[in-house]
């Protein structure tokens, strides 16, 4: 999978490394800003009330 | 065959990494975010109070030009709090001398990310009835992490910008079930109070990382003083 991505990136090794880094940062950003905030309320830490709101 | 094995192992490593990142997010990043947001809410409140827009009552026409602060109307009933907006700051010396959190209206999940949440259908601050507040035990800044250390006699101090309200804890921490909604009744049965009064209830989850139970403390309004009179006894050191 990662090998396939690596082979399909343009440029020489340095450019590919840079693009990979950018991709990793983008994925982490999306996870922290969209995926995790969505998933976190599914965990029990938000249940602090007694009327289940 | 080799490609399949490699892809599967790569996927496993990826999932593992995402899980680790998620743990970092829950344990650490929500706290960073919440601290920032709560400071922001407190700043906004203090700014509001500094501008004199203390009671956003429907009838208040902005700055009263009279400016005679010496004549407080007798126990003015505050207007309804607006949902998801901060209206008070809570101080609990037992949880730390610098412990202070904004109190927002409502107990929706998104509200509790920004501070403590006031149960919308309970009494208002300092009024007759049961002023009830919920807060996170863990994650989002861990506001009620040390909840079990609260003891009868401890002070819970709140301010709405004009008045300091000092509540004293009478009972708790009391462990109950999440469905036990009568703990936030005007006169909670298990609290030992027998007649109507100005009470305060705090709720959070128990165990620390779970949701099977709730921890409750009850307090009564011990004293009030205008902000001009300075900080109440309980906050002085």
Automatic annotation (TrEMBL), chain A:
<keyword id="KW-0472">Membrane</keyword>
<keyword id="KW-0812">Transmembrane</keyword>
<keyword id="KW-1133">Transmembrane helix</keyword>
<protein>
    <recommendedName>
        <fullName>DUF4175 domain-containing protein</fullName>
    </recommendedName>
</protein>
<feature type="transmembrane region" description="Helical">
    <location>
        <begin position="12"/>
        <end position="36"/>
    </location>
</feature>
TrEMBL record, chain B:
<protein>
    <submittedName>
        <fullName>Class E sortase</fullName>
    </submittedName>
</protein>
<dbReference type="InterPro" id="IPR053465">
    <property type="entry name" value="Sortase_Class_E"/>
</dbReference>
<feature type="active site" description="Acyl-thioester intermediate">
    <location>
        <position position="205"/>
    </location>
</feature>
<dbReference type="InterPro" id="IPR042003">
    <property type="entry name" value="Sortase_E"/>
</dbReference>
<keyword id="KW-0472">Membrane</keyword>
<dbReference type="InterPro" id="IPR005754">
    <property type="entry name" value="Sortase"/>
</dbReference>
<keyword id="KW-1133">Transmembrane helix</keyword>
<dbReference type="Pfam" id="PF04203">
    <property type="entry name" value="Sortase"/>
</dbReference>
<keyword id="KW-0378">Hydrolase</keyword>
<feature type="transmembrane region" description="Helical">
    <location>
        <begin position="12"/>
        <end position="32"/>
    </location>
</feature>
<keyword id="KW-0812">Transmembrane</keyword>
<dbReference type="InterPro" id="IPR023365">
    <property type="entry name" value="Sortase_dom-sf"/>
</dbReference>
<feature type="active site" description="Proton donor/acceptor">
    <location>
        <position position="136"/>
    </location>
</feature>
<dbReference type="GO" id="GO:0016787">
    <property type="term" value="F:hydrolase activity"/>
</dbReference>
<feature type="region of interest" description="Disordered">
    <location>
        <begin position="53"/>
        <end position="80"/>
    </location>
</feature>
């Amino acid at each position: 999978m990662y090998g396939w991505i690596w082979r399909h990136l343009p440029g020489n090794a340095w450019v590919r490394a840079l693009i990979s880094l950018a991709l990793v940062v983008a994925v982490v950003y999306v996870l922290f800003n969209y995926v995790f905030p969505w998933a976190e309320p599914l965990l029990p830490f938000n249940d602090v009330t007694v009327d289940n709101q | 065959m080799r490609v399949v094995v490699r892809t599967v192992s790569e996927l496993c490593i990826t999932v593992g990494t995402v899980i680790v990142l998620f743990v970092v997010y829950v344990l650490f990043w929500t706290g960073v975010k919440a601290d920032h947001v709560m400071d922001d809410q407190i700043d906004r409140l203090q700014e509001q109070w500094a501008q004199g827009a203390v009671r956003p009552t429907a009838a208040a026409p902005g700055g009263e030009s009279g400016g005679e602060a010496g004549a407080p109307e007798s126990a003015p009933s505050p207007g309804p709090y607006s949902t998801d907006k901060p209206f008070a700051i809570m101080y609990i010396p037992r949880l730390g001398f610098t412990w202070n959190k904004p109190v927002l209206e409502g107990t929706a999940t998104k509200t509790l990310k920004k501070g403590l949440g006031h149960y919308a259908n309970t009494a208002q601050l300092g009024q007759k009835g049961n002023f009830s507040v919920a807060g996170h035990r863990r994650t989002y800044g861990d506001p009620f992490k040390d909840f079990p250390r609260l003891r009868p006699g401890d002070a819970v101090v709140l301010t709405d910008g004009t008045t300091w309200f000092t509540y004293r804890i009478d009972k708790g921490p009391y462990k109950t079930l999440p469905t036990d909604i009568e703990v936030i009744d005007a006169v909670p049965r298990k609290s030992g109070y027998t007649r109507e009064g100005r009470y305060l209830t705090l709720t959070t989850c128990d165990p620390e990382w779970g949701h099977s139970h709730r921890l409750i403390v009850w307090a009564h309004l011990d004293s009030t003083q205008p902000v001009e009179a300075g900080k109440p006894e309980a906050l002085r050191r």
